[in-house]
Amino acid sequence: MIVCQVLAYNTVNNMFGKNIRMERIMDRNTGNCVIVPLDHGISVGPIPGIVDFKKTVSDVTIGGATAVLMHKGMIPHGHRTSGHDVGLILHLSASTDIGVNSQSKVLVATVEDGLKLGADAISIHINVGAQEEPQMLADAGMVSSKCMDWGMPLIAMTYARGPSIKDSFDPTAVAHAARVGAELGADIVKCSYTGDVDSFSRVCEGAQVPVVIAGGPKMDSDMDILNMVADSLHAGGHGVSIGRNVFQHRDVQGIMGAISDICLKGFTAKEAFEAHLKN
What we know:
Elements: H1 2-25, E1 33-37, H2 40-44, H3 53-63, E2 67-70, H4 75-78, E3 87-91, E4 93-94, E5 106-107, H5 111-117, E6 121-128, H6 133-150, E7 154-160, H7 171-183, E8 188-191, H8 197-207, E9 211-214, H9 222-234, E10 239-241, H10 244-247, H11 252-265, H12 269-276
Parallel strand pairs: 1-2, 1-10, 2-3, 3-6, 6-7, 7-8, 8-9, 9-10
Antiparallel strand pairs: 4-5
Helix pairs in contact: 3-11, 7-8, 9-11, 9-12, 11-12
């Protein structure tokens, strides 16, 4: 009886802790989040936008990001000692684009590292369809269990990528990848936008947990970015996790402000553009 009471007490505390952490990375009023992933240094190196790391973190925070995502070694370089706070997500998965198999993601940190470093959430990457998919699934399952033990929110970046994947934006493949993340215990799933509201609404419906969209390759048009964000929300999405289209933008604070206003204040794409980027 005592053992059951202790387990129940710990479970309640873990869920309470998770709820507190979730509120640090998501907007309380809308349930949406505006995440800026800054983990590209491992995969592609010190590309423009992530060299002056602290400035980038400051710019996206001022623009309205609810959270930034990075690897453990960059946390000291991105931490600011002034201004308002922003949620911190520790990314555990890594590979390099110059390696023999960039689709094979391995774990380079632990959930406990996140706790020590002050992270509000953990993220992992799964390439559904890759040759190393079984190991990535096993790793994700282990990380998910650890997150449950500690009351730590888990974000799963799930993509349809591999030898059998002909189109990584195919709605059926994207929906499958998103559901994989949810099945493994993710609290939020990040996936590719399928290109239209109808198909992406099916992705969101099938995922069962909040879905946020990836930004993908750098776009040329601001309105393309903003329309994609607005359409994903209309389809049932809960925000964005956009990297290069934000931190490599000519006006980082401007594009971040526009995206944030769409996700958190209900602006249309046109309204957000005129408020932050027209000039």
